[in-house]
């Protein structure tokens, strides 16, 4: 398909802004920092991923941007970022992804959150980013069911998803991972929207303009 098609390019100019976190599209400017994170053995283990070269990481970013089955946002620290005191790459704390894993069922989204910066863990950043991504998935992408697959040893993450109303539905002892699931009925949908009613949408390109340029 040509440019502009594919469900997931939908977010390439979307910023979702919450209290603690802002979600921005994964762009090439984010790659060096992202690449640096993924050198960490701990993160490789938690995300079940292989370390890539910087060049491969740029390739990945391009394919993710153009892939119709993935929606990726980089998680920024809102406070640091909106002060414009730092560029995106200095405010990056992690990423959040939504994958359409079932070709038969476009309403099922697999969600994945990574808070890569250790100093930001356990402070509600992952929770807010996940809620915001789920809300976006429900309102903009037509998702009605979420799944999360998490390594058995990652108790903090399993615990967080359970707080977000996910239920454990399967354990895979070979991959040592737990599958959690949430079916978004009307009640869950309302809860999600209530949890994220502080979320603002902005256009990414406008956010990037230096102050004062909008008035001209």
From TrEMBL:
Transmembrane segments: none annotated. It catalyses: N-terminal L-methionyl-[tubulin] + acetyl-CoA = N-terminal N(alpha)-acetyl-L-methionyl-[tubulin] + CoA + H(+). Keywords: Acyltransferase, Transferase. One of its GO terms (molecular function) is tubulin N-terminal-methionine acetyltransferase activity. The keyword Amino-acid biosynthesis does not apply. Its EC number is 2.3.1.308. It is an enzyme of class 2 (transferase). Residues 20-167 form the N-acetyltransferase domain. InterPro entries: Acyl_CoA_acyltransferase (IPR016181), GNAT_dom (IPR000182), NAT9-like (IPR039135). Pfam families: Acetyltransf_3 (PF13302). Belongs to the acetyltransferase family. GNAT subfamily. PANTHER family: ALPHA_BETA-TUBULIN-N-ACETYLTRANSFERASE 9, N-ACETYLTRANSFERASE 9. N-acetyltransferase that mediates the acetylation of the N-terminal residues of alpha- and beta-tubulin. This is Alpha/beta-tubulin-N-acetyltransferase 9. The lineage of its organism: Eukaryota, Metazoa, Chordata, Craniata, Vertebrata.
């Amino acid at each position: 398909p040509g440019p502009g098609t594919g469900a997931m390019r939908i977010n390439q100019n979307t910023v979702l802004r919450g209290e603690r976190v802002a979600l921005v599209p994964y762009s090439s400017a984010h790659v060096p920092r992202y690449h640096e994170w993924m050198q960490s053995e701990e993160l490789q283990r938690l995300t079940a991923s292989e370390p890539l070269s910087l060049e491969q990481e740029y390739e990945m970013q391009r394919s993710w941007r153009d892939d119709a089955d993935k929606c990726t946002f980089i998680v920024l620290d809102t406070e640091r970022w909106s002060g414009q005191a730092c560029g995106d790459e200095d405010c990056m704390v992690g990423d959040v992804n939504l994958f359409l894993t079932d070709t038969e069922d476009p309403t099922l989204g697999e969600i994945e959150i990574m808070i890569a910066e250790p100093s930001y863990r356990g402070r509600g950043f992952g929770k807010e980013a996940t809620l915001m991504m789920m809300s976006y998935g429900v309102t903009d992408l037509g998702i009605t069911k979420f799944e999360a697959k998490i390594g058995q040893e990652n108790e903090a993450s399993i615990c967080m998803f359970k707080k977000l109303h996910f239920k454990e539905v399967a354990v895979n002892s070979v991959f040592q991972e737990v599958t959690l699931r949430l079916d978004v009925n009307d009640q869950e949908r309302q809860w999600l929207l209530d949890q994220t009613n502080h979320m603002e949408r902005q256009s990414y390109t406008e956010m990037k303009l230096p102050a004062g340029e909008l008035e001209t």
